[in-house]
Design goal:
Order of helices and strands: HHHHHEHEEEEEEEEEEHEEEEHH
CATH topology of the domain at 1-87: Helix Hairpins
Shape: elongated
Helix content: 25-40%
Strand order of the largest sheet: 10-11-15-14
CATH superfamily of the domain at 1-87: DnaJ domain
């Protein structure tokens, strides 16, 4: 597959100046850098393509050869170094952004820093988590100063290259045979010095602000799920990209339902007459009431399954089920007349033996065999 023309890749004219080429590369690099587009192969491919074009067109010797002979004039050497996804963002962009903030660069390169990622805990009702919702979140973050546009310098002035590190942000310390590179203590790694700080941010380039965002919660989320909002974290420094905001979901306990993944569980109290004779009862679901047929002779703790009445998984697939556990409610505060009626009923049922009490009779038989073994 033939390579695209480098000028076309950077969207510049063939007679573009070095500053125009650098500006075009900066725009594309900021847009497609893998730090801003994680797990995006297409963006990474565009970044590699732009980087290769810039490496050639920013070099006078390589550009002259390319202008005369095209890609063949480079002998396959252009871009041979490739792109290492593990490269630091500041190392990739240092040579591009180094001289944006002031003329006293002196061959150094100012480092850029990506903003920190933020985390926000979002408490949701079960209905919101199952069906999805649009909710607003409010949080504090470091945003770019509007007065100095993040430079840290007062309007009309510019940051100066740090004299200690020459704009590199790193200094070397020699100890015997060893040379140690460490962050410059004077500029703290920025490669710049603010001589006339901005009144709005005191030279920091960022200010604390309260932000409110609308977050679209997809249907089916559960406790522990995270929603990533790209670029909504802290602002970067020295022109670096902003971090991300991770909204962590926590579903509140529900007064009726308990959730187990895609399935829901609930208890249904029924009276003695319903358990004895059977009946149809109304059961709540998140989508409304449904009818459930209780057969005669239903025992306490019996579980009925309502298919498809649970939650649909956030990543797709069929909805879960609703499991309804019967809880037999024993009447209390009986009158004398009611107590007498219960005794007559119990006497009548007892006379029927296993016909009316299959479980208790079976249990009594097992208990009798157990004691017989002990006596033997």
């Amino acid at each position: 597959m033939s390579k695209r023309d480098y000028y076309e890749t950077l969207a510049v004219e063939r007679g573009a100046s070095a500053a125009e080429i650098k500006k075009a590369y900066r725009r594309l690099a900021m847009k497609h850098h893998p730090d801003r587009n994680p797990d995006n192969d297409e963006a990474e491919a565009h970044f590699k393509e732009a980087k290769e074009a810039y490496e050639v067109l920013s070099n006078e010797r390589k550009r002259a050869a390319y202008d005369q002979f095209g890609h063949a004039g480079l002998g396959g050497g252009a871009g041979a170094g490739g792109f290492n996804p593990g490269d630091r963002f500041s190392d990739i962009f240092g040579d591009v952004f180094g001289d944006i903030f002031g003329g006293g660069r002196r061959g150094g390169r100012h480092q850029v820093f990506r903003g920190a990622d933020l985390r926000y805990q979002l408490d949701l009702d079960l209905e919101q988590a199952v069906f999805g919702d649009d909710v607003e979140v409010s949080y504090s973050t470091l945003s770019e100063c509007e007065r100095c546009h993040g430079s840290g310098a007062r309007l009309g002035s510019e940051p100066q290259t740090c004299p200690s590190c020459g704009g590199h942000g790193q200094v070397r310390m020699s100890q015997g045979m060893f040379s140690i590179q460490q962050t410059c203590p004077q500029c703290r790694g920025t490669g710049q010095q603010i001589l006339d700080p901005c009144d709005g941010c005191a030279g920091r380039g960022r200010v604390s602000k309260r932000r409110t965002l609308s977050v679209k919660v997809p249907a089916g989320v559960d406790t522990g799920d995270r929603i990533r909002l790209s670029g909504e974290g802290e602002a970067g420094r020295n022109g670096g990209p902003a971090g991300d905001l991770y909204v962590e979901v926590r579903v509140r306990a529900h007064e009726i339902f308990e959730r187990d993944g895609a399935h829901l569980h609930c208890e249904i109290p029924i009276g003695m007459a319903t358990a004895l004779l059977g009946d149809t009862v109304e059961v709540p679901t998140l989508a409304g009431e449904v009818s459930l047929k209780i057969p005669a002779g239903t025992q306490s703790a019996k579980v009925f399954r309502l298919r498809g009445k649970g939650a649909a998984p956030v990543r797709g697939g069929p909805a879960g089920d609703l499991f309804c556990k019967v809880k037999l409610e024993t009447p209390v505060n009986l009158t004398d007349e009611q107590q007498e009626m219960v005794r007559r009923l119990e006497k009548s049922l007892h006379a029927g033996g296993k016909r009316h009490h299959p479980y208790s009779r079976s249990w009594l038989d097992r208990v009798k065999k157990f004691f017989d073994k002990l006596g033997a």
